Amino acid sequence: MPHFIENKSGHFVVTTSIVGKIGTPLRSTYAATKHALHGFFDSLRAEHYNDNIAVTLVCPGFVTTNVSRNALTGNGTPQNKMDSATVNGIDPDRFAELMLKAIKNKKEEVYIAGAKEKLGVYTKRFFPKLLSKMIRKLSVT
C-alpha cells in the first residue's frame, strides 16, 4: 500500500520504490502501482508548483522487510519466502534516517538503495535495452 503524508507546509512525501522506475520479474502488480504513484505525483508537483506545493518521492530499493514474503505469485497466493536481495537489503533504521534527510532538503526524488539498484535506475535511463537484458536474468525468488 502506498504511503504519503502532507504536512502543513504543503509538502507531500510519498514512499514509492525503485520498482516505480524499473519493473522486475514477479512484481508486475507492485510495479504498476508504483509507476502510477510516480505519474500522479510528478503531475501534481508540476500543476501546483506556483501554489508552493512540494512533492518528495522516496524510492527505496531492497529494505529488510517482509515485502518478498508477502508478494503474490502468478496464481494469487503469497510467495511465503524471503528472497536474498531483501534479506541483504538496507536496514530499516538507516532507510528512515536517509528518508528524513531527503524530506528536510525537499528533494523531488531520492533513491535510498544499494549501489546496484541505483545503477539500475541510471542504466534504464541511458541504456534501456541493456537493462532489459539484465532484468531478465534477475532472480527475485
TrEMBL record:
In terms of InterPro entries, this protein maps to:
NAD(P)-bd_dom_sf, Sc_DH/Rdtase_CS, SDR_fam
Name the GO cellular-component terms: membrane
One GO molecular-function annotation for this sequence?
oxidoreductase activity
What Pfam families does UniProt report for this protein, alphabetically? Answer: adh_short
Keywords (A to Z) from UniProt: Oxidoreductase
Q: Does the keyword Zinc apply?
A: no
Q: Which family does it belong to?
A: Belongs to the short-chain dehydrogenases/reductases (SDR) family.
Protein known as: Short subunit dehydrogenase
What lineage does UniProt assign to this protein's organism? Bacteria, Pseudomonadati, Bacteroidota, Flavobacteriia, Flavobacteriales
